[in-house]
Amino acid sequence: MTLGPVMLDLAGTALSGEDRELLAHPNVGGVILFSRNYESPAQLAELTRAIHELRRPELVIAVDQEGGRIQRFRDGFTPLPAAHLLGRHHDLDRERAQQLAETCGWLMAAELRAAGVDLSFAPVLDLDYGLSEVIGDRAFHRDPEVVARLAGRFAAGMRHAGMAAVGKHFPGHGGVTLDSHVALPEDRRPYADLLDDMRPYERLIAEGLGGVMAAHVVYSRLDRLPAGFSRWWLGSELRIRLRFQGAIFSDDLSMAGAAFAGSPEARAALALEAGCDVVLVCNDREAAVTVVESLGDWCEPASQLRLARLRGRSSAEPDLHASREWQRAVAEVLAFEDERPRLELT
């Protein structure tokens, strides 16, 4: 059995019979976990073990564990600073900020890998224009060069811990005010202005970026379709101009930013035809089942290989919390937390 193009979610902290039946479908390739799926590191490790044992090749298990306000697993995991605090610190101490970004990437990925999670959808590569509340402090900085430096070091830390990085939200969600969870934003900027938003992608792609998640945003001077449904953005720009060879993920197809395409199965078909390798269907089990069944004998060998490459590598540390690297990383991150009030005022 191969990995299918659908990544979906679970209702609880353990697999139900319905979950097991759905995850066995050949059109499923992965699972995304949320806070509702988490109680403790031990429970999470048991859940990921059960998911991985269902299939060969194993399903890819993902989560949003960026740091700051987007950290699905908290108790038992090290609290990570929001990306914008690293950006603020970069303005004061460039070298230390970059080292801390790499430490945060390693720590996030190492703790997830120890619990059996393959992938975190991080880092955020959006620029902080001060417009988007849904992005907000998830962005490292306004300057694309600073974003590229900090996100590149964050991704390097992830790779060191055995996890691929997934940059989001291509080509950039920072230039709009609307939240694509509840509306379809329109970015009216010309192509020349959007080149800044894509500069971090250029840098990280050259450094081996494993995945990209596309934005539910319409860039109306260039295409009538949102980026995640656009052959031009995913093909001409991402695959050809930027020479990206990794996996392309849709953002959640249950979001309002995808509603323009119609039914769940129509949304999935349009995203896959545009060039997505994997479509996410979250928080709507009926829609997930419909999408999985609607794809029939979907087969894209290149997409299957790209997703398989994102499976996490084994950690070199048999007991993470006993390792000196983990202890040093936690101490560095917690010490940085003491600087939060000063950085938030700058």
Task: Characterise the protein shown here.
The chain is α/β, with parallel strands linked by helices. The protein has a single domain (6-345), classed as TIM Barrel. Helix content is 41%, strand content 11%. The protein contains twelve helices and twelve strands. The strands form four sheets. Strands 6-3-2-1-12 form a five-stranded parallel beta sheet, sandwiched between helices. A three-stranded parallel beta sheet has the order 7-9-11. Strand 4 and strand 5 (70-71) form a beta hairpin. The longest helix is centred in the first third of the chain and has 21 residues, at 94-114. The termini are far apart.
What's the helix and strand layout?
Layout: E1 6-8, H1 17-23, E2 28-33, H2 41-52, E3 60-63, E4 65-67, E5 70-71, H3 83-92, H4 94-114, E6 119-120, H5 144-160, E7 166-170, E8 186-187, H6 191-206, E9 211-214, E10 218-219, H7 231-241, E11 247-249, H8 264-274, E12 279-281, H9 285-294, H10 301-308, H11 324-337, H12 340-345
Helix pairs in contact: 3-4, 4-5, 4-11, 5-6, 8-9
Q: Which key phrases capture this entry?
A:
single chain, 346 residues, alpha/beta, TIM Barrel, 3-stranded parallel sheet, 12 helices, globular
In short:
The chain is built from 12 helices and 12 strands.
Proportion in helices: 40-55%
* Helix count from the secondary structure assignment: 12
Domain module count: 1
CATH topology annotation: TIM Barrel
Largest sheet: 5 strands, parallel
Assign the CATH architecture: Alpha-Beta Barrel
Radius of gyration: 19 Å
CATH level-four homologous superfamily name: Glycoside hydrolase, family 3, N-terminal domain
Per DSSP E runs of 2 or more residues, the count of β-strands stands at: 12
